[in-house]
From TrEMBL:
<dbReference type="InterPro" id="IPR036097">
    <property type="entry name" value="HisK_dim/P_sf"/>
</dbReference>
<dbReference type="Pfam" id="PF00989">
    <property type="entry name" value="PAS"/>
</dbReference>
<dbReference type="InterPro" id="IPR035965">
    <property type="entry name" value="PAS-like_dom_sf"/>
</dbReference>
<keyword id="KW-0902">Two-component regulatory system</keyword>
<dbReference type="Pfam" id="PF02518">
    <property type="entry name" value="HATPase_c"/>
</dbReference>
<dbReference type="GO" id="GO:0006355">
    <property type="term" value="P:regulation of DNA-templated transcription"/>
</dbReference>
<dbReference type="InterPro" id="IPR013767">
    <property type="entry name" value="PAS_fold"/>
</dbReference>
<feature type="domain" description="Histidine kinase">
    <location>
        <begin position="156"/>
        <end position="367"/>
    </location>
</feature>
<feature type="domain" description="PAS">
    <location>
        <begin position="21"/>
        <end position="65"/>
    </location>
</feature>
<protein>
    <recommendedName>
        <fullName>histidine kinase</fullName>
        <ecNumber>2.7.13.3</ecNumber>
    </recommendedName>
</protein>
<dbReference type="GO" id="GO:0000155">
    <property type="term" value="F:phosphorelay sensor kinase activity"/>
</dbReference>
<keyword id="KW-0547">Nucleotide-binding</keyword>
<keyword id="KW-0597">Phosphoprotein</keyword>
<keyword id="KW-0808">Transferase</keyword>
<dbReference type="InterPro" id="IPR005467">
    <property type="entry name" value="His_kinase_dom"/>
</dbReference>
<dbReference type="Pfam" id="PF00512">
    <property type="entry name" value="HisKA"/>
</dbReference>
<dbReference type="GO" id="GO:0005524">
    <property type="term" value="F:ATP binding"/>
</dbReference>
């Protein structure tokens, strides 16, 4: 069975063949987004629109009156197009397939459709249409389904790993006094530190694959930033950094999951510390933290004068599992970005190599 669309194309093509096609029909066929080629009962091309001869990179007068054999031997038709024409002809004429898909030399996807049979009275109508956009959507949906399945499986495995780690940690703590007597307390300390690091990695992974729903509460921006600075000040001093908290102008309150938002800010401060320690030249590391009102939003900024990042790193910064750190998981900023978006905000970043990096967290204010 042929569609009404294809039947109208055939009718228009036949009318054109008989010389009775008016300007309206001709405009429709010439400007349609599909390539059209019509073979008569003798296998001779009787009509071809400009989309089709444009695809074939040939002139209309060199196509009309040709058979498929003549077309395949056309001196101006390149080898790749000849191969695709032959494949389409074989699959659809000899094997009876109504549709055939292929990829051209530029990586674009095309679909060829054939209408023939008794209703066509011996004619063969081929329509060719690019379907690259449809294929991209289809592949993206398929990939998302696979990632969702993998995420659920990985989260389940990660959750199960935490149970034996908890047991191992408990037994190491019980054995620690005996190790201390043997002068091996350092071993216990290293084991506990590595178990804690493994638990942190699993926690970040679980947050990335299935972040918890925000437990929203109101907090002032000033209180949030002061608490974050208090938690990181001593660590910054040990790494030779100075944290400068800019005084905030006016009262600004946000409705957020305080624990999650604190995690975001702490993660960015610690990233700033690492960027400062990784810079090779002799200088004083400084981390600037502050916030300002912009309309109905607050802009929280965290900037440093560390080693900075190039454009390639910035492009992939929030991608899961991407990291430039030797022992990093690549999940910290990905999770932070997800948390901020769940609160109706966004994160922007600017950076220059050997000059520093500036993160800006935008969040809606409570009016």
């Amino acid at each position: 069975m042929i569609s009404q669309y294809q039947e109208s194309l055939l009718l228009s093509a036949r009318t054109f063949q008989s010389g009775l096609l008016d300007a309206t029909y001709e405009d429709v066929l010439e400007n349609i987004d599909s390539g059209i080629i019509l073979f008569d009962e003798l296998g001779v091309i009787s009509f071809v629109n400009k989309q089709m001869y444009g695809m074939l990179e040939l002139q209309r007068h060199s196509l009309v009156g040709c058979t498929m054999a003549h077309l395949l031997s056309h001196i101006q038709l390149n080898r790749f197009k000849k191969r695709q024409l032959l494949s389409s002809y074989r699959e659809m004429i000899y094997k009876g397939k109504p549709n055939y898909e292929f990829v051209d030399e530029f990586g674009r996807y095309w679909r060829v459709s054939l209408s023939s049979g008794e209703t066509m009275k011996g004619y063969y109508l081929f329509t060719v249409k690019e379907i690259s956009d449809y294929k991209l959507i289809e592949q993206t949906a398929y990939q998302n389904d696979n990632l969702a399945m993998l995420g659920k499986l990985s989260a389940s495995i990660a959750h199960e790993i935490r149970n034996p780690l908890t047991a191992i940690r408990g037994f190491i703590q019980l054995l620690r006094p005996h190790l201390h007597q043997l002068g091996k307390d350092e071993y216990a300390r290293i084991i506990l530190a590595e178990i804690d690091r493994a638990n942190d990695i699993i926690h970040e992974f679980l947050m990335s694959s299935k972040p918890s729903v925000p437990q929203v509460g109101m907090i002032s921006v000033s209180a949030l930033l002061k608490e974050a600075v208090l938690l990181t000040e001593s660590e910054a001093l040990m790494k030779g950094c100075q944290i400068h908290l800019h005084p905030l102008q006016g009262d600004m309150a946000i409705s957020v999951d305080v624990k999650q938002m604190k995690q975001v800010i702490l993660n960015m401060i610690r990233n700033a510390m690492e960027a400062i320690t990784e810079r090779s030249d002799d200088y004083t590391g400084t981390i600037e933290i502050g916030a300002r009102r912009e309309g109905a939003e607050v802009r929280i900024f965290i900037s440093d004068n560390g080693k900075g990042m190039d454009i390639c790193t910035l492009d992939r910064l929030f991608s899961p599992f991407f990291t430039t750190k030797e022992n990093g998981t690549g999940l910290g900023l990905s999770v932070s970005d997800r948390i901020v978006k769940n609160h109706g905000g966004c994160i922007s970043v600017s950076s220059r190599v050997n000059e520093g990096t500036r993160f800006v967290i935008s969040l809606p204010l409570i009016q």
